[in-house]
Amino acid sequence: MRGASVELIQVSKRYGAALAVDAIDLKVPEGSYCCLLGPSGCGKTTTLRMIAGHETASDGNILIGPREVGHLPPAARGTAMMFQSYALFPHLDCLDNVAFGPRMRGVDRATRRRRAMEMLSLVRMEGFAGRLPAQLSGGQQQRVALARALVTEPSVLLLDEPLSALDPFLRVQVRAELKRLQTELGITFIHVTHSQEEAMALSDLVVVMNGGRIEQAAPPREVFSRPETGFVARFIGGHNVIAMPGGSLAVRVDRMRLSPRLVDAAGEGGLPARVETVEYQGSFVQLRLAPLDTARATEVFAAVPDDVFAAQPFAVGDVVTARWAEGEAHPLRDGQLPADVPALEEIAP
Ligand SMILES: Nc1ncnc2c1ncn2[C@@H]1O[C@H](COP(=O)(O)OP(=O)(O)OP(=O)(O)O)[C@@H](O)[C@H]1O
C-alpha cells in the first residue's frame, strides 16, 4: 500500500443557507496521520465526507495525490472509510466480512480469502476468522472493521470517530493499534475526533476546526505550545487566556509562577489574583485563581510542581501574583481587545 497526499483548496459546503464548511485550505502530506479536531457541528464530518466523495463540495477543489477527485465517485478515489459503528454483517463470519468488498468486485474466491486473511493478521485477528461479529468484543469488531476498510488497499483511510463507541480502556488499546498500523502501512490516515487527547496522541498534523473554518493546522506540540487563537487555547486546554493592552495572550497553566503579593510594591507587574481552590494532583498542585482585575480574565489556573508548592504553599483566600517568562506568553491572532480595557503595567518575568 502507498499513501497519497490530500489537498483541499477553498473547499466549502452549503446546506441551503447554512455554511457547514467555509472555504478551507488544507494540505495533508502523504503518509501522515492527520486528526480533524473540533466541537460538535464544526464541520469535521462534512469535510471527511467530501474527501470520501459521500458529499459533494459546493465550492473548491479536492486533490488526492496529483488528481482532482471532485467529480469521481467514492470507489474511484483510492480512499476507504471506517465509521463509528462497526457495521459488520451479522450473519457473516470475520473472514467473509473482510472478503465482502473484493467479492462484490468479482475477485476470485481463493484470492479474496487470502487477502482477507492477510488483513485479519495485520489487525491481529487471524485467530477469529471463523467467528460471527456477535461473538466478538467491541474492540475486536472494530479491528475487523479496520481490516475490511484496508482490504481495498486505499492510499487514504478516512476514520469518523472510530474510537468513540469503545470504553476508555479499549479506546487506548485500539488507538495504539491505529497508530501502529498507520506507521507500518505508510498510508495517509484522516481521523475525525472531538477528543483533544486522542488528536494529541495520534497526529502528525492536528487540524482544529470551529464554525466551518480551520483555526490552526500544525503538529500537536506546536498546537499545544503555541495556540494561534483563543478558541484553540481553550479547546486544547492547559492554557490561560489573558487580556493585555495589545491583545490577548495564551500562557500554559504549567508555566505560571506564583509568589505572595507584596501589596505596597511600587510598579508591581504580574497578575494579582485571589486563590479560589487548591487541588493536590500528585505530581503537581492545581490552583484556580480569580484575578483582581476581571477585565484581564475571570479565572486562571496554575499547575505548580508538588515540590515547588511544598516549599511555598498557598491557601484558599491568599492573594498572589502570577507571572510568566516573556517567551511563555503567546499573542493570539484573534486577541484584539476593545479600546476601553485599561492599560496595565508591563508583565515582569
Ligand atoms: N445533510 C445535512 N443537511 C443540513 N445540514 C447539515 C447536514 N449535514 C451536516 N449539516 C450541518 O453542518 C454543520 C457541520 O456538521 P458536521 O456533521 O460536519 O459537524 P461535525 O463537526 O462532524 O459534528 P459532530 O462531531 O457532531 O459529528 C452542522 O451545523 C450540521 O448541522
TrEMBL record:
Q: SMART domains, per this entry?
A: AAA
Q: Give the coiled coil ranges.
A: none
One term under GO cellular component? ATP-binding cassette (ABC) transporter complex
Please give the SUPFAM superfamilies that the UniProt record associates with this protein. MOP-like, P-loop containing nucleoside triphosphate hydrolases
Task: Tell me the keywords, alphabetical order.
Answer: ATP-binding, Nucleotide-binding, Transport
* One BP term from GO: quaternary ammonium group transport
| GO MF entry, a single one | transmembrane transporter activity
UniProt xrefs under Pfam families: ABC_tran (PF00005), TOBE_2 (PF08402)
Q: Where is the ABC transporter domain?
A: 6-236
Which Gene3D superfamilies does the record match to this protein?
Answer: P-loop containing nucleotide triphosphate hydrolases (3.40.50.300)
Q: Which PROSITE patterns match?
A: ABC_TRANSPORTER_1, ABC_TRANSPORTER_2
This one is known as ABC transporter ATP-binding protein
Starting at the broadest rank, the lineage of the source organism is:
Bacteria, Pseudomonadati, Pseudomonadota, Alphaproteobacteria, Acetobacterales
